[in-house]
Amino acid sequence: MTLRHHRVYVLVCVALVFAAVFAVPVTFLQVRPAPAAPVAAGASLPTLVAAAATPAGAATPAGPQAWTEADLDAVGEDEGPEAPAPAAPAMTLADACRRLPGYGTIFVEPQPGDEGIQVFEGTFGRRTFFEVVRSHTRDLDAVAAIAEAVRRTQLFDFRRIRPDDRYRLFCAADGTVRMFEYSRSETEMYHVVRAGEASFVAHQVEVPVEDRVTRVAGRVEGALARSFVAAGLDASIMPLVTDIFSYSINFSRDVRRGDRFRVAVEERWVGGRFHHYTRILAFEYVGQLIGSVQAYAFEIEGKTRFFAADGSSVQRVFLAAPCRYEAISSRFDPNRMHPVLHVRKPHEGIDLVAPTGTPVYAIADGVLAFHGEKGPNGELVVVQHPGDMMSYYAHLSAYAPNLRDGMPIRRGQLLGYVGNTGRSTGPHLHFGIKLRGEFVDPETYLRSQRARPVPPAQMEAFRARVAELKAELARVPLPDGPAAAAPPPAPEVGYAPPADGGN
Ligand SMILES: [Zn+2]
């Protein structure tokens, strides 16, 4: 649950309590004269939650500020002090448990004296249990009684509270502690509930954890992340989507208003509330620039990967090689003797032998960082890629037309032509990859990054799974498309890697 979610829930709580209180203001407000507890914007969470249970604190711009004590008294007289108990009384302990985040289906039976429950919550920080209780109420008798109930059950140990552990303290209108809640994690939660004048009972709360599949369709209106949220998804879906398509969809360039998407995603619900997305199961994007792109999750060797319906990987990241070549004349070697200089000089890339004029392609999407003459490199192209990676293409004879430093580059885009410029003994492409500031062996690196299709032995299982996932997606129809027919997606550019992967 994100902080943002949390805030939303708190605000919803404020609104709910507010509605409940002002729908039936009489009995409650007479019982509890309103202390001044304004809710400031940006107030800390405990303050807001406490205010949520305190009607006087539910001061929103509309309505309550216009009420005066006299107004309240007058309303009370209209209804009479003997008015029957309203259907929705002021927040009871049971109400509080249902309305606050993190409770889910937990239900506490209403008890006399529950009305006007205030909830204080927070993390322990460096405080002891005693200090926490003392900061919210003067009912210090409860401390010993709660400690005794916990000791009896040995459910947990107050001496082992960690600073990030959370608590909620439920106090009745007179300040007596009705319940203490202690959470060591989202799923490990304890309640210590008042059971009598001076006794409490402790129990561990069963927090239900459930995985659900949600299907959502939507249309792009502005930023993609915002469009996901507008369609009803949590913003935390975005990194999952970009992770799948990091190299097949460029989300800053290929996305257009009016594009459509649908997704089937697995969610983890904790305590009856959304907690996080476990994984995307199927995703379809219909773009005006990129056509229809689909990705289906399929597990191979225990790892979830994403494939198009035909079993090819949508996570294909790099070309297997930047050009067709006849041989590798010199490999990556941090200790090489230089063939021209005859000194020990690391070879920070690979030399691909190819005739002058052979086209050279960008191995991955990125931005053109540099092109020009650069000493021993001769005519050089440098592309900056996501993930702090650079690729280098040296000794070129010529550049692709219209290259401009800073321009976006697509995987497979023509950069230039093999040549023999700079410190070079024959036509070849010197190709290098720098990862986080260090040159790495391009052969090893490209091989490790190559996304494989579904293995033939698993194709049958994959097809069956895709049929299921297509049925999941089909349950949410895509919104209508834009009036103008979208152009077909651009064909795969240029270089087709050899079957063995090239290098
Ligand atoms: Zn070289």
Description of the molecule:
Residues 1-89, 103-107 and 484-503 have low confidence and may be disordered. This protein folds into three domains: 3-205, Nuclear Transport Factor 2, Chain: A (Roll), CATH 3.10.450.350; 208-316 and 458-503, Nuclear Transport Factor 2, Chain: A (Roll), CATH 3.10.450; 327-449, Glucose Permease (Domain IIA) (Distorted Sandwich). The relative contact order is 0.08. The radius of gyration is 32 Å and the shape is elongated. Strand 9 (291-300) and strand 10 form a beta hairpin. With 503 residues, it is of the alpha+beta class. Helix 2 crosses helix 4. It is built from eleven helices and 21 strands. The chain has helices at 3-23, 25-31, 45-52, 69-79, 93-99, 129-136, 141-153, 224-230, 238-244, 442-449, 459-474, and strands spanning 118-123, 166-171, 177-183, 189-194, 200-205, 209-219, 260-270, 273-287, 291-300, 303-307, 327-330, 350-353, 359-361, 366-373, 379-385, 389-396, 398-399, 408-409, 414-417, 428-435, 438-440. Strands 11, 12, 14, 15, 16, 18, 20 and 21 form an eight-stranded antiparallel beta sheet that branches. Strands 1-2-3-4-5 form a five-stranded antiparallel beta sheet. The longest helix has 21 residues, at 3-23. Zinc ion binds next to loops.
